Amino acid sequence: MDEIRSHIEEVARKAAEASGRLRVLTDDAVDEALREAASRLEHERDAIIAANAADVAAGQGTLSPAVLDRLRLAPARIENISSQLRSLAELPAVDPLISRDHAGGVIVEVRRIPVGTIGANFEARANVAVDVASQLIKSRNAGVLRTGSAALRTSSTMIDRAIGPSLEAVGASAEAVGIVRVPAREAASALVSLPHLLPLVILRGSGETTARLGREAAAHGVRTLAHAEGGGVLYVHSSGEERLALDLIERSLDRLGVCNRLNLLLIDRDRWDALSAAATERLTALGINSSLPPHEHPIGHEWATDDEHAGTVTLAPVEGVSEAADLANRETSGLAASIVASDPRAAAEFIESYTGTGVFWNETTRLLDGYRLFHAPETGINIDRVPGPRGPVTYRDLHLRQVVVKPVGADPGR
Fold it and tell me: What are phi and psi of 140, to 5 degrees?
């Protein structure tokens, strides 16, 4: 453990030392770094795919099909990651000045400044290393990335061959975004125990692991942005169109190993018999199992993290909007819920009653994604019920508020 901690401290210290050059880059230089990273990902495609193939081969027999699907990279996925980087480069930088006022003979400014150096612990998903790194660069934060052995070859190759060189190309240091080279699980605990080097750590992964790391981080005085639990809810109101409901069911299950997929299908009781039969038929055609009442599991059980039963959706009847919203609030993670309804009053009531991170009307919860909603790859989706960034966390959220007080006339040029 001492060797692991020393390794992470070294990576974090180098990132912190490199953060100053990253922080003073111009907006144009930041965006050029992102475009350069996109080009390098494409240029290094063969090396990245080879590293990924080695990761996938090593996971055969030990990782579930759902995890392997999340891990596996193909040329089209690399092109998609590159496209997202180029889109991110086109987005405006965060305005450092939030507000400006006069008070008691002085100028009071409220500014946004980068956190400094941010840690990130994430699951075996090939795109996450680039997603997080790009948000750090866009927000001018340095960082330390850590993933497990399943994705370490892929993640390291993308950082070494694309992210690091792109930073050097614009005058920053490749060490501004470091990656932990040790696959041991103890490395995650070490990552959340360095408040002076990594005051904030992004946590992604299984609920149990993320919850444990969150507790360890709190004990060390490290703040976290956690993305652990998920599971989308689709509620079909009595006024909902069956064709639309079935279409949303299908669109919500294009991928099974993601947090915002359909997990729980609620149907008004007066439509239950016909719609549950139609929904079950559609699910079966998609190769998905239907968990029907009486349930032997918690109704909000997240199937995406249940490797043996990922291809499952829970169905349940409800008495109306109030019960549907209450059940979604009480029994699920609070990630996202959608209502299928032609009655705008029912939709409005559901939207006002649901307290989760994202709520949708006649749309799929799969839209709760940083790139789809805000055109910026996300570091994760935060579902905390406290003030701070909630929902898809992007570069716009990775800043601190700073109050600056100046004498009137101290900066006449502004």
Answer: 65, 35
Distance CA 378, CA 333 (A): 19
Contacts of 97 (CB under 8 A, 6+ apart): 109, 110, 111, 112
* φ and ψ of 23, to 5 deg: -65, -30
Average pLDDT, the chain: 93
Nearest to 119 by CA among 137, 138, 142: 142
Q: For residue 387, what are the CA distances in angstroms to 51, 137, 239, 384, 391? A: 40, 24, 35, 8, 12
Residue-level length of the chain: 414
- For the chain, the distance separating the N- and C-terminal CA atoms, rounded to the nearest angstrom, is 52
**How far from 286 is each of 240, 273, 274, CA to CA, in Å?**
22, 20, 19
pLDDT digits (tens, 9 = 90+) for 245-295: 999 999 999 988 889 999 999 999 999 999 999 999 999 999 999 999 999
Q: What per-residue confidence (pLDDT) applies to 31?
A: 98
The C-alpha torsion from 312 through 315 and 321 to 324, rounded to 10°, is -60
Per-residue model confidence (pLDDT) at position 350 = 96
CA 209 to chain centre: 16
Q: pLDDT tens across 72-129, in order? A: 999 999 999 999 999 999 999 999 988 888 877 898 889 999 999 999 999 888 789 9
Beta-ladder partners of 227: 204
- pLDDT of 414 > 50? The answer is no
Domains assigned to the chain: 2-229+386-407 (3.40.605.10), 232-371 (3.40.309.10)
Of the ranges 31-40, 56-65, 148-157, 356-365, which one carries the lowest mean pLDDT score?
A: 56-65
Sorting pLDDT into bands at 50, 70 and 90, what band is 411?
low
Give residue 104's Cα distance to chain centre: 43
Alpha carbon of 13 to those of 7, 117, 135, 155, 360: distances in Å?
Answer: 10, 9, 20, 20, 43
